[in-house]
Amino acid sequence: MKIRKDEIKEVLIKHTQIQKRVKELAAEISADFRGKNLLVVGVLKGAWIYLADLVRQLDLNVDIDFVAASSYRGGTESTGVIDIQKNLSADCTGRDVLLVEDILDSGTTLAHIKELLLARNAKSVTITALLSKPSRRVVPVDAKYIGFEIEDKFVVGYGMDYAEKYRGLKDICVLNESVYDR
Ligand code: IMP
Ligand code: MG
Q: Angle at which helices 15-32 and 48-57 pack, to 10 degrees?
């Protein structure tokens, strides 16, 4: 996806750097879950590109499912209320689940979805998030595989949006303030 130069303030993480990190994470996950039949659960919509890149690097046979959740109402701040728009289709009873998220912010979303999976009798739930903003955490979440820790900046690209835009950007970027005033 092409973007107008005046919309971007900063390229925070270039796609080459993302690809390198995703490979490293996939190697770790493959080693840790060797021989296990993992159920990979992506959190829509933000995690779709990370999940697609990650599973193609995994040296494991995995099943894939999605939940759709949102705590955002078009702005850049979480409302703290999680709305599950699509629940799991697969039966996760007795399964080792890898929960895949784009970004761990307040922690509300992942804490909620993890509980949901455990309530559906998942054997284990391990979390990976491509990004984490540790300074924003409200609910503690134990995420085993984190791609990059970033500062408290609102980012878009590589699946992540602002008001449903910019998901197709290859790099992870910070937008100019002027975009939010529109
Ligand atoms: P949490 O529940 O506050 O941890 O929020 C997590 C969700 O908020 C993520 O799955 C993202 O969809 C969204 N989110 C948090 N920070 C950002 C950001 O910087 N850019 C885009 N989406 C974000
Ligand atoms: Mg998300």
A: 60
Query: What pLDDT, in 10s, does the model give residues 47-97?
Result: 999 999 999 999 999 999 999 988 755 566 666 778 888 999 989 999 999
- 5 pLDDT more than 90: no
Q: Retrieve residue 11's tokens.
A: 């390229």
155 CA from centroid of ligand 2 (Å): 12
Predicted TM-score (pTM) of the model is 0.94
- DSSP 3-state assignment of 176? coil
**Which residues have any ligand 1 atom within 6 Å of their CB?**
43, 46, 71-72, 78, 101-109, 154-156, 160
Q: Which atom of ligand 1 is nearest to the CA of 103?
A: 9
Query: Which mutation among 102, 108, 128 tests ligand 1's pocket best, with the greatest number of atoms within 8 A of CB?
Result: 102
